[in-house]
Design goal:
Organism: Candidatus Thalassospirochaeta sargassi
Distance between the termini: 14 Å
Protein name: HNH endonuclease
Bound molecules: zinc ion
Largest sheet: 4 strands, mixed
C-alpha cells in the first residue's frame, strides 16, 4: 500500500531491494547469492508451529488457487539469516506462544510485527515465483504494479530483522491480539487467512488470535473500537467476524503512505520517515462504512452465504453483538462450524 518516494544512494540496500530477483538463486531476506555452502530453506510457517498444531500435512491455498502443504511452503534463505537472525525471532515467539495468551500479549510488538511480515512476505515470495513463471511478455500477463511496490516496502521493513532498518516516526502496522476459546480439533485450534488488497493477515493458534494490517501505519487500530472484545474469550466464529470488520475497515483507508528512507554516513542501518498521512486534505482518511460492501468481507471470513447475511438495510448478521448491540458470548461447545473460507477468494 505504501510507497518509498525518496531515498539516498549511499547504501547498497536499496539497490538490492529494487533489483530483487524472486527466485531460488538468492536469499529471500538479505539477497546474497546462494551456493551449496550457504543454502538453506526457511519454512514460511516455522517448524515448531507446524509440530505444535499438526500442520505438516495440512494445506494452505495460494492466491492463484493452488493448494500446497504447509510443510512444502519454503523459501530460499542463506544460513546466516536463518541461523542468526530469524531463529532469534522464532525463539521469542515460540516462548511467548508456549505461555499461552497471557504471556503472548506481553511480547515486544516489534518482534511480533517482524514475525508476521516474514510469514506474509514469505507467502507472497512463493506466489511471486508462480507469477514470474506465468508473466511471459508474449501472452500479455503482467505482475500488478501494486504487488511489486508492496513487496519492496515489506522487504525494506523486514531488513530490521538483520539490524539494517528502523522506522523512525511511525508504527507501520495495526496489530490486534485477542483471546480465543479452542479445542484440539483442527478447525478450532488453527486458521490462517491473508488478503493482498491491504496486506492483511489473521492467525488463530490455540487461545491466541492475531489480526494485522501490515502497512496501514496503525490507522485501522486507531479507528477500530473493539475494546469490549478483549474482555471475553472469543469463539473462533467471533474472531472471524472481527477479521472481517478489521479487513473491511482497512479497505476504506483512502490515503497512500509515502516514505523517505535515508542512511547517514556513520550508520549501519537505513532510517525511514513517514510523510503525514492527512496531507493538506481535510477529508477523512477513511471512506464511509457501507453494510452492503461489508457483508462480502463477512461472508468471505465466516463462510456464511452472502444472501443470508443482510438482515435489513441497516443490519448485518453478527456473532459478536446481539440485536441491542450488547456483546455476545458463545461457548465453543454450543456452536460448531465446518470448513469456511477455503473456497472463497476474498480479494
Ligand atoms: Zn540472507
Amino acid at each position: 500500500m505504501g510507497e518509498i518516494i525518496e531515498e539516498n544512494k549511499l547504501t547498497g540496500l536499496f539497490e538490492k531491494i529494487h533489483n530483487k530477483k524472486y527466485d531460488s538463486t538468492n536469499c529471500f531476506l538479505c539477497g546474497t547469492d546462494l551456493n551449496d555452502k550457504n543454502r538453506t530453506d526457511e519454512h514460511v510457517f516455522p517448524r515448531w508451529l507446524q509440530t505444535e498444531l499438526d500442520l505438516w500435512n495440512q494445506h494452505i491455498t495460494l492466491l492463484n488457487g493452488t493448494t500446497i502443504f504447509y510443510r512444502s511452503l519454503k523459501i530460499p534463505c542463506c544460513s546466516e539469516c536463518n541461523n542468526k537472525y530469524l531463529s532469534t525471532i522464532e525463539n521469542n515467539i515460540k516462548k511467548a506462544f508456549n505461555g499461552g495468551y497471557e504471556e503472548f500479549i506481553k511480547i515486544d510488538e516489534n518482534i511480533l510485527f517482524l514475525w508476521l511480515v516474514k510469514i506474509y512476505y514469505g507467502i507472497l515470495y512463493k506466489e511471486m515465483f508462480v507469477l514470474m513463471n506465468r508473466a511471459k511478455p508474449d501472452d500479455g500477463t503482467i505482475i500488478p504494479e501494486k504487488f511489486i511496490k508492496d513487496m519492496k516496502v515489506l522487504n525494506l521493513f523486514l531488513q530490521e530483522i538483520r539490524g539494517k532498518h528502523r522506522c523512525v516516526n511511525f508504527k507501520p502496522a495495526s496489530i490486534f491480539i485477542l483471546k480465543l476459546q479452542h479445542d484440539d480439533t483442527d478447525l478450532m485450534k488453527w486458521d490462517f487467512a491473508d488478503r493482498i488488497a491491504t496486506n492483511f493477515l489473521s492467525i488463530r493458534m490455540r487461545d491466541i488470535g492475531i489480526i494485522a494490517v501490515l502497512d496501514d501505519m496503525h490507522t485501522t487500530k486507531d479507528v477500530c473500537a473493539i475494546d469490549d472484545f478483549y474482555k471475553i474469550n472469543l469463539h473462533p466464529i467471533q474472531f472471524n467476524e472481527l477479521c472481517a470488520i478489521i479487513f473491511y475497515r482497512s479497505l476504506l483507508l483512502n490515503r497512500t503512505p509515502f516514505f523517505a528512507s535515508v542512511q547517514k554516513e556513520d550508520q549501519e542501518y537505513v532510517e525511514t520517515y513517514l510523510h503525514p498521512l492527512q496531507g493538506f486534505s481535510a477529508k477523512s482518511i477513511f471512506d464511509d462504512w457501507d453494510h452492503n460492501n461489508f457483508k462480502e468481507s463477512l461472508s468471505a471470513f465466516t463462510g456464511y452465504p452472502l444472501d443470508e447475511l443482510l438482515k435489513n438495510e441497516n443490519m448485518v448478521m453478527s456473532w459478536i453483538h446481539d440485536e441491542k448491540m450488547n456483546v455476545k458470548e458463545i461457548p465453543i461447545r454450543e456452536y460448531r462450524f465446518t470448513r469456511f473460507d477455503q473456497e472463497i477468494k476474498g480479494d
